[in-house]
Design brief:
It comes from Panthera pardus. The chain is of the alpha+beta class. The chain is built from 14 helices and 40 strands. The longest helix has 25 residues. The N and C termini lie far apart (59 Å).
Length: 771
């Protein structure tokens, strides 16, 4: 492959960029590295070298034990909430569902997913929610909780803090083994809630404001589910979803053995698995759906916080079931959770060179003119909003069909198993006599290339298997040379960043990782700490099902739940790893990562099947870093223009709009991140309709509605504007409407601490007509 030759200007700009990053990290290291910045947790003796296996192969809000032991964080004294009495004489499970807002900041924070410099939040399209489901046996002896969260991924710090707060309230009822936290993987949610340096840098700092908002929302959703528990039944159904996926690394998929590929009709997993939850009277309670697709219908030019295609499916399902409620409100909860989505894109028109229109579906995802930055995959709609609706709408419709026809009841005991594992040092048994080893974390060159869903900002190309002297030298000078051991372990990956050997100001990647599984009757939910590719997921499911069958649990259904508990990037097959496209370059523990996970999850399955979970070692507990690099964006006082007040209308609504048009009002604004601290208001906006019979205004939309958009325009010296749009749907009733704006401004008088004060404003009334 011909190498791109950097111009002098390119080289200088790249060198300047990297130097600025390195200097920033170095300075922050000096600032934040102090004694006591980390709680060290002693290794409790989990052996990273295992024996050879026997066989190989709600409403919105703002603002008996299988394994034992406390979580990794030190919390306040435990005040156990009394357990409500449970009715026991029935067949089924106690079921509780809950949903709570976990949006966090919608301004002055990077969006997490694309790692694109400058893609920061500037408003909101939809709110983000945590959706919790608790299932307990009739006698209450065993219970499990599954939580799907509208965020990019669950961070280790987030999980540890949630478990700590649950322990403080409920004692040992909800623990690391029986609570799964799973991210939907929207790329349009805020970052800033991580503790490992790679992700802190990608988030442009740690935001305690957003972290606390998310933790509070997740815990609140679990509390709601706990309070709402009632006897009920769970039904399972499966079916294929067509027309919403492509494999974004098809050339990598082709590296898998032909005999294996021949067993499948597609290079993506099309099967959706749903759980239908009802009470004993048949009243609907909730839905969990698992389906493999990247929520990247909203591309890397987007600046509005939203839950993308899977969130849109949840939105449609909940609106259908919660008639008469605003979005985010009502008792029914529908979660569309992630699965083995690693190489699966919703941009079904495929990759094309945006400058020529030619296909760039090649091993390097590169165009003859412009390289990889010109190779972009598009969704089916006329813009990213429309593509999100199309993809999410199809997913919703299929889930609705499967839900309506679900008749196979889940019965049987509940179980949970969990271990912490040092993934940088697992001995993998390839067969009864030969072993291999996982590696210290490292990212390859193709990681920096990005994907056809969002290319990297520098001149890197997917499929790179040879390093570049320029980048190698620059890395060595700024960060030090990677060891020969890590380079040898990761072959054929050319290492760009040897993150497992970088520890300042904190480790750059996790070593200690959760492996976790819960079973609900004949369903096994495998909680994976990253993004498995299609074939990786198939191998893991097959191995887990075979392990259960070996020990007498026949006909188990295994479902992969993605982005759980801690984020470790991607997991490809050994064969896909050789191609070194983006997913392989991002498989941070080396070529045998998948084999290690299969070995570990088989051990959990065996323990559940043989009722020996209590004999599993907990493993080495992960760290919890107390002092992190704070956001470099300062908190400044908000200011209104002379003669104006916050919320004053700068551009009024027109007197009349037709259905299908966009009503828009511009107000004197204040920084929306203030509303993540002072949660006086639960929405940034409302659309209200005048009801003549009662002479009142009725709220018909809020900022969780798909039809509304809230844009924040940042000016100089604390000045800003806020634009509220209502994209008037065809279902809107003719009548008189108005829009309202709810915000908070930061005020600080001389020599006094800053305070955050609420304000609100109302547009003039306008009429909506049908023609």
């Amino acid at each position: 492959m011909a190498k791109h030759t950097l111009s002098t200007l390119e080289a200088f700009l790249i060198f300047l960029l990297v130097m600025m990053t390195a200097v920033t990290v170095a300075l922050l290291s000096l600032l934040f590295i102090t004694s006591g910045t980390i709680e060290n947790h002693k290794d409790s003796g989990f052996p990273v070298t295992q024996s050879p296996p026997a066989t190989l192969g709600s409403t919105t809000t703002q603002g008996s034990t299988l394994t034992h032991g406390s979580t990794a964080t030190q919390g306040p004294p435990v005040t156990t909430t009394p357990e409500p009495p449970l009715f026991q004489n029935f067949s089924g499970y106690h079921i509780g569902v809950g949903r709570a807002d976990c949006t966090g900041q919608v301004a002055d924070i990077s969006l997490m997913g694309y790692s694109k410099t400058g893609q920061n939040a500037r408003g909101i399209l939809t709110r983000l929610y945590s959706r919790a489901f608790i299932m307990a046996e009739p006698d209450g002896s065993n219970r499990v909780a599954f939580v799907s969260i509208d965020i990019g991924m669950v961070s280790q710090r987030l999980r540890l803090e949630v478990l700590n707060r649950l322990q403080s309230k409920y004692g040992s009822l909800y623990r690391q083994d029986n609570v799964i936290l799973s991210g939907t993987h929207t790329h349009s949610g805020p970052g800033g809630y991580f503790q490992y340096t790679v992700f802190v840098i990608a988030s442009e700092g740690f935001s305690n404001r957003t972290f606390e908002y998310m933790v509070t929302g997740i815990v609140k959703s679990i509390e709601m589910a706990h309070k709402n528990m009632k006897p009920g039944k769970i039904f399972i159904n499966k079916g294929n979803v067509e027309g919403v996926q492509i494999n974004r690394s098809p050339s990598s998929y082709l590296w898998n053995p032909p005999s294996e590929r021949a067993r499948y009709s597609s290079n993506t997993d099309k099967e959706m698995i749903i759980l239908k939850m009802v009470d004993l009277n048949g009243v609907d309670l909730g839905l969990i759906s698992w389906f493999a697709i990247h929520p990247v219908s909203m591309n890397n030019t987007n600046h509005l916080v939203n839950s993308d295609n899977m969130g849109y499916a949840s939105y449609l399902f909940e609106q259908e079931k919660n008639k008469g409620y605003l979005p985010g409100q009502g008792p029914y909860v529908a979660a569309f959770a992630s699965s083995n989505l690693g190489d699966v894109s919703p941009n079904i028109l495929g990759p094309h060179c945006v400058n020529t229109g030619d296909s760039c579906d090649n091993a390097n995802s590169s165009c003859p003119i412009g390289g990889s930055s010109m190779c972009i995959a598009m969704g089916p709609g006329h813009d990213m909003f429309n593509s999100t609706q199309i993809i999410g709408g199809i997913i919703y419709q299929r889930a609705k069909e499967l839900y309506a026809s679900a008749s196979q009841e889940l019965t049987g005991p509940l179980a949970a198993a969990h271990q912490w594992v040092n993934m940088s040092n697992v001995t993998v048994w390839l067969n009864s006599t030969h072993t291999a080893q996982t590696c210290k974390p490292a990212l390859g060159y193709s990681f920096a290339a990005g994907t056809i869903d969002g290319f990297g900002s520098l001149n890197f190309t997917q499929g790179t298997t040879v390093g570049d002297p320029f980048w190698d030298t620059l890395r060595d000078q700024l960060l030090g040379k990677p060891s020969e051991e890590i380079k040898r372990c990761h072959k054929p990956k050319p290492i760009l960043l040897h993150t497992g050997e970088l520890t300042k100001p904190h480790p750059w990647h996790p070593d200690i990782v959760d492996v976790q599984m819960i079973t609900v009757g004949s369903l096994a939910i495998i909680a994976i700490p990253g993004e498995f590719t299609t074939m990786s997921g198939r191998r893991l499911r097959e191995a887990v099902q075979a392990e259960f069958a070996t020990y007498g649990m026949q006909n188990m259904t295994a479902v992969i739940s993605g982005l759980c508990n801690v984020y470790t990037h991607y997991i490809t097959t050994f064969e896909e790893y050789q191609a070194q496209r983006y997913e392989a370059a991002s498989t941070i523990y080396g070529p045998h990562t998948l084999s290690a996970y299969i070995q570990l999850f088989r051990a959990l399955a065996k323990a559940i099947a043989t009722d020996t979970v209590a004999n599993l070692s907990r493993g080495p507990e992960p760290p919890y870093f107390k002092q992190l690099i704070a956001s470099l964006i300062p908190n400044i006082v908000d200011r209104a223009p002379l003669g104006r007040n916050f919320g004053d209308v700068l551009q009024p609504a027109k007197p009349t709009y037709r259905v299908g048009e966009v009503a828009e009002v511009i107000f004197v604004g204040a920084n929306p991140k203030n509303s993540a601290e002072n949660q006086t208001h639960q929405t940034f906006l409302t659309v209200e309709k005048y009801e003549a019979t009662s002479a009142t205004w009725r709220i018909v939309h809020n900022d969780a509605s798909w039809e509304t958009r809230f844009y924040w325009h940042k000016g100089l010296l604390g000045h800003s504007n806020a634009t509220i749009q209502w994209h008037i749907p065809g279902t809107a009733q003719p009548g008189i409407y108005r829009m309202r704006y709810f915000g908070h401004h930061r005020k600080q008088d001389f020599l006094k601490p800053a305070v955050i004060l609420p304000f609100e404003s109302t547009s003039s009334a306008f009429e909506v007509v049908t023609s």
